[in-house]
What does this fold into?
Amino acid sequence: MTAEDYLKAGRLSDALQSLQQAVRGNAADPKLRVFLFQLFCALGEWERAVNQLNVLASLGPETKMLAHVFQPVIQCELFRDKVFTGEHTPIIFGEPEEWMGLLIQANEMAAKGKYDAAAKVREQAFEAAPASPGTLDGKPFEWIADADMRLGPMLEVVMEGHYYWVPFCRIQRIHIEAPTDLRDLIWVPAQFVWVNGGEASGHIPTRYPHTEKSSDDQLRLARKTEWTERDGLSIGLGQRILATNDGEHPVLECRMIDLAPAT
It folds into this structure.
């Protein structure tokens, strides 16, 4: 079996072993190096992924651009890891409001195991956060949130070399691209229109924090989502789920989200 075959079968370690053998036989093949970079990302081998990007930067202009895009994305992933262990504070997109600070405070409490106190602060944040009505692929909803209660009315976004928590109420439109490559299962490309009319391109982390540390390759490949309940707090692993009053929506199946201005 080839590395591609092992990947389709959801066997990441076997895919890595097969691919490394192929790279040893043709070390200058940029396609093999790109595949190896993406596989290291799926496995959470961030240092080795950066090493592959450094090699790719020297192989030609196209792979140099790939390295230019994803070197800061990986640094954001390392920063993100520490946000969910309570060691770093996320950057809020736009002017911070009180409920946003409460949500960050609740995340820090939960990271320290103070789930009861975190739940009370999180409840205050959720009550104060504005509902964001709109449509998801043409289907109307009254509100939208991340199904992971650590985030709720916030969307994780990586753009311009920074990791943000973006309130849904500050977004006018999200266009999520259909996944075409392995790296899209880790960070799915998206275009954003903000409520002030500004536009930006970036990535939405496809997987919930620390998924790469799981031993389940189906989670690491964003082929499923699992939930852990801790004192009323739902913590996700695997593919991100967006929740509306109409149900749950895996992020890789969403394409266009239009949001009405907050009233």
Notes: The chain has two domains: 3-83, 91-259. Helices lie at 3-8, 12-25, 30-42, 46-56, 61-83, 98-111, 115-128, 217-220. The mean pLDDT is 96.
